[in-house]
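In keeping with the milestone schedule agreed at the kick-off meeting, the structural modelling team has produced records for the first pair of proteins. Each record is given below as a sequence line and a structure-token line. The laboratory manager (R.T.) confirmed that both were archived under the project's standard naming scheme.
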Amino acid sequence: MSGRLDVRDAWRAVAALVLALAPVVASAAFTLRTEVDARKIGVEDQVQLTITVEGSGAPDDVDLPPLANLDVVAGPSQSTQVSIVNGRMSQSRSTVYVLQPRAVGKAEVGALRLGDQVAPAIPIEVVAGSARPPQRQRQDPFGMDPFGDPFAEMVGRRRERAAPVRLLVEASPSRTRLRVGEPLVLTYSLYTQTSVTDLQFKDAPQFTGFWVEDLERPQTSPSGEAATVGGESYRRFPILRKLLFPTKAGTLTIPAATFRIGLARQGFFDSGGAVERATQPLTITVEPLPDAAGFSGAVGRFRASASLDRDVVPLGEAVTLRFRVEGTGNLKWIERGPEVVAKGARVFPPQAKSDLRTTAEGISGSRTWEFVVVPETSGTIEVPALSFSYFDPSAGKIVTAETTPLALRVEGGTVAAGLPSPPSSSRATGALPLRSELDLHPAGAFSVSGRALALAAGLALLLHAGLWGAGRLRGGARGGAGRASSPRSVRAALRDIERAGKEATSKEQAAGLVEKALHEAFGGIPDEDESERARAVRALLDDARFVRYAPQLGDYTDKVEDLAARAAEAVRRWA
């Protein structure tokens, strides 16, 4: 959240400043050309490639054209020429590379396309040695340059008699007193009575103590607007705007920014020139924000809402809870979403998505936190009301926006089968039931009498009790460390894990295979088991459930491969 610009920020500010002088036109109109300073060079020589875009509407970035038998040894260096002549603005932007041939023979700078403009390819001949003529050294034993400009002294005398150049630059804030986190608009403007050919920062502006956002360049007439300063008439050109958010209370200073301004030629004996102008330092008074529990640091006007992507879900499946905050203010500052606790469900950490745009009023749009909620029991689960606190400058106080509680009905699973609900636990243990294991047989697939059904249920319970007792005996023999795995079950688990990493068609299928493999290899892990083995298996199960139920917001290939590799290592080590 540093407010200080680095070198790259300074160059971006310079580029934005110069481009701000481009005329506002109804449609983009620009021309493209590429040129080299020699078509025949030696293998020891270098050649300069210049890419020039003239006019407005061109993209900011221009790619390097394809090169044959040439390497880039320097560049790119960029320069922008802006001219204000007779009250009209024009601009051109040049990008320069220095190229070195690789070998004797043919070389080429390939064709370059930018929008609907195409610059043709440039062939270059490379010969042995050097083809550049030696540079003539100018020596002046008499204190004179025989190759100099014979009119230099005359031009100098004319300039001494010329009227002073009337140019001003100004930095004006939209306000000088505000709260921490409130925005102010800082506008840099040029006031001129003469034609200008170039405009650059000599010293880039510094914004220590502020969060800085770029605003769109001001839309103004190509001829500027009339202004009067100190009784003198000027043409005013707004050239750069910044949106500043103070990050601390107190008296903050925006120091002076120095511009180097190129001047147009005024006659035959005038080669133009350059002058420097600086803005005045600015003092901004920043008041602190009130302190309150749960205050997020947001400043502006916001509203909050919450929703579930489904109101009814089978046990074993996940739902997505979306908590959305929208409005205008410093919403980009807010990183953490609310704490969500839903009894009877596991809530995974959220993923945040933003839809924001920067305007003179602040940062507008929305920020959404998406939570994956996995029910762990049947019945109705309530997602409690979620709150978002922010400072409202118009009200002068902290305001809390609160959502309404949400109800989620969970169906199926053990409750649907008539068995008791699993006890709720703050930590999930073992593997979650796979979706295929939770699907009930459709009604009418077969029919049995009530007596037969009761008999089957009784036999199933007896069989279940026998298996449970055998498992307990084996578990007791191992000191409560979990059941032993047969070599066959270990091999099956490793096959499932390999399929998850290589053959699964979705993240859900891959995570399900890993869960199944861990269940086969380790069975249930008691809550009281805090061994390294137990902690590792529980962590793998948590990761598998996250991958399985997380919303599809990107590519999970790397996450699945990492999960499969760690699961295979755990099975080989401990199963």
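The second protein of the pair:
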Amino acid sequence: MAARLAAILVVAIVGTTLIAGLIVGAQRDDSSGPVDLIIHNARVYVADDLGSMAEAVAIRGNKILKVGTEREVMRYRRPQTTVIDAHKGAVLPGFDDAHASLVAGGLARDGVRLDAAETLEEIQSRITEWIEARPDAAWVTGGGWSYDMFADQPVRAQLDAVAGDRPARLLSLDGQSLWVNTKALQAAHITRKTPNPADGVIVRDRRGDPTGLLKGAAIALVDRLVPPPTREERAKALQLAIRDAGQRGVTSVQDLGAASGDLDLYDAARDAGTLSLRVYAAVPAERTPAVDLDAIAKRYPDDPLLKTGLATIALDGTIDSQTAAMLEPYESKGAGAGVMALPPADLARMVAALDARGWQIAIDADGDRSVRAALDAYAAAGKRADGGRPPRHRIEGLAVIDPEDVPRFGALGIVASMQPLHATLGGTANWSKLLGPDRLALGWSARSLSAAGAHLAFGSDWPVLPLDPLGALRAAVHRPELHAGEQLTLKSAINAWTSGAAWASFDDHRKGTLKPGMLADLVILSTDIFAGTAQLDAAEVVMTVFDGQVVFKRPS
């Protein structure tokens, strides 16, 4: 009997101890485990809908462990913990570029950049310097010019004056026009007798001779002469682009310009451990058969590092090139209203077919007529009959939207994917001539879209525009006087570069905000950008953390 009582007593003691241990363990936080990285003395912006701020962040492995006050986070410090003093600088989620072409950006790094040039003389000076630095280059390549830089339109004689005997091709800021010299026209056999290709224009003078300006599909007449890069060159370009992204605080890219073979390059980099940013790669729907789409989706399913599931449709061009499809004609004498690549009925059928296969769709539409057609196609597709996840379909570009269509974004759950630098780098003089004052005021309606319930996602449009998230933030919050009503608050603009972009790629459950359990992707800036305009204008990327590891640190 005594032995039995003793056994019962032992069991009771052991059980009580176990229960107490479970209770203590449940109440204990994770401060007793290893903490790899702490960032403190910071202005931490969580990037949630509440606009929450904090002072410090603790990271364990590749996940965020704690976000809170200095005192709350610093008690996680252990001897092995790396501690980084942000010196009161802003700490944000890593930038998620919602519209870029990563490999193309790496390939374009060596071209002459004409962004922000203000005069023809400055353009020619940059080209001359580029040529002097590359005496063996067979072609003069690059881009970034806008129509506002010229008194009228660029012509070949202006390039002939500096390019010498080399063919030259320079892409416009909007990516829809190519400025070439006489050598390039001769190499492509473009004469007054050359017909315009479908969906393209060879701009001609009064005598019918090519001026040196090619639009739309006519760009390919010259581009096909430029030797395509090898796989090795593209792989090198990818690594250069990844490095550039890290230097600018970009930890995720949604590649809407992925070329054939780019997914294989990403996959190889992932296997080699050199893919130090997250990629959501799109597939061009117009050039990809349905059976291939299914195979691609199966090969690259949802994954934190590399995935696909986004199909793109290029519907029109741009305002500057008069190729964006407008509800009313352009103001220029004899100009039309732009052209859509697909009739509305064909677009609706393509959208319905892709939606039925479970693909997210991104329609590139700049003009108000093409934006309306995209919204109509999405509305016709409706909710998925299988009751699956909401599709989060997207419209890219959105240069001009008819006010009547703005509320439809929120009602349909459409992502408004915009590139803020387009609103500032291109200038407004050419737009004013092409659209007139009433439509000019409708440009880049970010605030109106946000107020109507649209999900904003911002990107760079690299390499058409610079890979510059901080510049894009400034562009979004400091709009020109004409568009001052469309400027965003700083936190709203940051959200579009972080949590909003993550929502647009179905990644909001794992990245885009600085909260416990989220992936440890973040950027440290040199200033407290929330303190005022001067601090935002002076801000630089000090450090980029990807997957819990420091991948960029600015030299002291």
